[in-house]
Amino acid sequence: MSSPTSFTLPDLVSHCTFPLRVNPSCSPIARASEEWLLAAANHTPKKRAAFMGLKAGELTAACYPDADPQHLRVCDDFMNYLFNLDDWLDEFDVEGTVGMERCCVDAMRDPVGYETDKRAGVMTKSFFGRLVQTAGPGCRDRFIYSMELFFCAVAQQAYDRASGVTPDLESYITVRRDTSGCKPCFQLIEYAGGFDLPDEVVDHPLIRSLEEATNDLVTWSNDIFSYNVEQSRNDTHNMIAVVMQQKGYNLQEAVDFVGECCRASIERFEMDRQQLPSWGPDVDRDVEMYVDGLQNWIVGSLHWSFDSERYFGKVGHQIKKHRTVELLPKRTDCLN
């Protein structure tokens, strides 16, 4: 049987009926944040060009549409930082990942006093030093903890990559919920909104379920959108690759399976939202803002994936319409 040359994306954009809203300060804040990242990261011309096609500021503006310019800028800087960190960590082994975690987390714990000349540490001190000026203590501590989970999961991913291991689906989903970087981004909903959810809300099973459903949609849809680029470099840390190996599906069957999981996560989100209890008018107002923020992440990430050049180059808008993806050839410099 011949290998496939293309696959069809599930129509997740049409399935998601949430309104897409964009922060009115998008463009000037996005451009300023890009300059901040480029000044600190010291990219090669090739990486600089790739970064400019990322358009992380446009994603941030869709995920935090009501943030004022000051808070949006911190969210923008973190988003650019996170994508950049993810790309750096792709080149690291387990030991390198642990070293990066130590530097970044120490900078978050003491953004004023911690001294480092490492680029990631300097960027961490910059954005986090501004974040803690207005973030509540619960939001701040949860942000740091979620970043620790991110680094731990990336280290596991690095170990699997080095060992040539493709994890089973259950193990993959568990790790992917942290490698996605969604959890610290969800803490920024509180930061951007100027509230700090109490522990009894944060720990409530329905709030946890709403966060998980959002994380799953963002993460699994990203696996669909990024699959073509990742398969070209022989990267198996992708839900489609895991499903193909574990279930014996062909490529289109695996794409359709992951697409159905994405649709189910949106339906799970809606069902959980309808069952939320009341914590009193003041807390309920903050909870509503938080859940709306999760909703913004769902719809914003779906649309941005076609606006960015990270997954589909300069033809994302066309692919958004016809949904056919032509497979890229394998890169010989990435073959195991």
TrEMBL record:
UniProt keyword Lyase present: yes
Enzyme Commission identifier(s): 4.2.3.-
Alphabetical UniProt keywords: Lyase, Magnesium, Metal-binding
Source organism, top-level taxon: Eukaryota
Entry cofactors: Mg(2+)
Protein name: Terpene synthase
Family per similarity comment: Belongs to the terpene synthase family.
Listed GO biological process terms: isoprenoid biosynthetic process
Protein species of origin: Amanita thiersii Skay4041
A GO term, aspect molecular function: terpene synthase activity
UniProt keyword Isomerase, yes or no: no
